[in-house]
Amino acid sequence: MKTIKAIIIITLVSIFTTTTYAAEVPRESAPCNATSEAIVIVESLIGDILTEVQNGLGYADARAKSNRIFFNAWLNGQTNGYRYGELVDIANAAIWQYRDMYLRPDFYANNLEKVRVIIAPVIEDYKSGKVTYTEAEFNARNKIYQSVNPNFNPDVEYMKYPIYRDIPSVDNSLFILARKLILESKYYNGV
């Protein structure tokens, strides 16, 4: 079964790369439960739409186009067993990120190095194998919160009932940059 999935993925990737350039799903935007195969399927179905979003297509228009494609693919059994909702979640997150990057390119350019400095210890722990990806992502979030409010204590705040937590207000895109840096550190480390 795994060899069949591998063959399907390789086939999809080869079709995807030989036809036209289409944008990839940013791995840092994918939901934590998304598999590599599901991401490849999303890319093969809506890579062109992601490219359009990079070039200015609006979020709602892109979602409408992609939802129609996924629904038709699901109805016709072309999703390799993945549910419509799984694929749409991956696509919507990618569309949102590309749209945000289109609207605020300076934010991403100006904050990448800032986030890298803030989460440097987390990246080192992840690269050395001291923590898992999930732990690294959690620790990076806390480092970002503490960069806004040095008194933020996750051990205290997360023990509170959610409505009473005092968590600093932070632009969600900083977390996307943190996930990007953590994922990149894995690949640069030769893993």
Layout of helices and strands, plus pairs?
Blueprint: H1 2-19, H2 36-54, H3 59-75, H4 84-103, H5 105-118, H6 120-128, H7 133-148, H8 154-157, H9 172-188
Helix pairs in contact: 1-2, 2-3, 2-4, 3-4, 4-5, 5-9, 6-7, 6-9, 7-9
Task: Supply the key terms.
single chain, 191 residues, mainly alpha, 0% strand, globular
Characterization of this structure:
The protein has helices at residues 2-19, 36-54, 59-75, 84-103, 105-118, 120-128, 133-148, 154-157, 172-188. With 191 residues, it is mostly helical. Helix 3 runs antiparallel to helix 4 (84-103) and helix 6 (120-128) runs parallel beside helix 9. It is globular. Helices cover 70% and strands 0% of the residues.
Short characterization:
The chain is mainly alpha-helical and 191 residues long. Helices cover 70% and strands 0% of the residues.
Residue share in β-strands: under 5%
State the secondary-structure class.
mainly alpha
What count of helical segments does DSSP give?
Answer: 9
Order of helices and strands: HHHHHHHHH
The Cα radius of gyration reads 18 Å
Low-confidence stretches: none
Largest sheet report: none
State the end-to-end distance.
25 Å
How many extended strands? Answer: 0
Mean pLDDT: 90
Helix content: over 70%
